[in-house]
Amino acid sequence: MPHPTQLYQHVPESRWPIVYSPRYNITFLGLEKLHPFDAGKWGKVISFLKEEKLLSDSMLVEAREASDEDLLVVHTRRYLNELKVPQESDVGSGAPDAQWSFAVATITEIPPVIFLPNFLVQRKVLKPLRTQTGGTIMAGKLAVERGWAINIGGGFHHCSSDRGGGFCAYADITLAIKFLFERVEGVSRATIVDLDAHQGNGHERDFMGDKRVYIMDVYNRHIYPGDRFAKQAIRRKVELEWGTEDDEYLRKVERNLEKALQEHQPDVVVYNAGTDVLEGDRLGGLSISPQGVVKRDELVFRLVRGHQVPILMVTSGGYQKRTARIIADSILNLYGQGLIGPQPANVSAQNSDTPLLPLEVP
Q1: Is residue 34 pLDDT above 70, yes or no?
Q2: Per-residue DSSP letters for 119-143?
Q3: Is 95 helix (H, G, I), strand (E, B) or coil?
Q4: Residue 1 forms part of a structural domain
Q5: 174-188 confidence digits (pLDDT tens)
Q6: Model pLDDT for residues 300-318, shown as the tens digit of each residue
Q7: Can you give the pLDDT at residue 183?
Q8: 360 in a domain, yes or no?
Q9: Is 158 considered catalytic here?
Q10: Are 234 and 306 in contact (CB under 8 A)?
Q11: Number of domain units in the chain
Q12: Which GO terms describe its biological process (predicted)?
């Protein structure tokens, strides 16, 4: 019998299946500026959507923090202990107080974090990441209930059950799927569509050999993490070259997603919608235009919803200040195309001829 969890509490129909919390944002003494990731992008996305009158606070679902019991559905106790504050009994016993901060500094790729007090790292770094993880788990259930859901956060695809990395401390994609398998009747097959510029080695390691989960991963073959072992779990692998542009990228995404949905008929799709594919992203190394990112998300939603499959979208990587605006423009476009909303219309799997919403990208 699964343990009780607050993450699966009922959500009123009046709220859209868009999950967010102000607690998502990471700020710790300005050190977040040492990493190219915009640690406040999630709040900026919500601000843009409010400015465009698409959403208000009363329409959002507030994310709850994933508890230790929730995390143990996937993570090993040993790994979670590596991220915890030393016990009081360790104080004065010679146990290295900086050990936990070292683990988090490694995961966040911000070396000075090792010198921060443990309580500060817990409150300012890991608690926001646990809240985003809870948001992904919540959005999984909402997607099955409503046909779609978006967590304005999450997508920690480099974290697996026993290791973190690449700014990913918790395996939210794996957790969302395993929660659905264990707790939601009728969900026994899932597809992960990972379109972040980096290989999603975390969920690949977690689902290695699990035939219930089909993984399609489209990524720059030359960049982090280059995890050859994890690649064995990818059922549809699309390795891109440096500087891949819109036409080739969208063509490969569309063709491979169509085949993926034919090869494996899922009960839910988890879409990792990283914006680090954007031109100028120095960590992604691809050259997709803002319009191309918006069109990509529309294409994924149109194909998946055209197959009458629920879809959960998480926002994942993206290392430029303008990515928040592009994510917001993509969500606006999905709404304009009738692919999301309080009662989305029937969706055709064919490409839409309707022009995209005007983009205002700085």
Answers
A1: no
A2: HHHIIIIIHHHHHHHHHHHHHHHHH
A3: coil
A4: no
A5: 999 999 999 999 999
A6: 999 999 999 999 999 999 9
A7: 97
A8: no
A9: yes
A10: no
A11: 1
A12: epigenetic regulation of gene expression
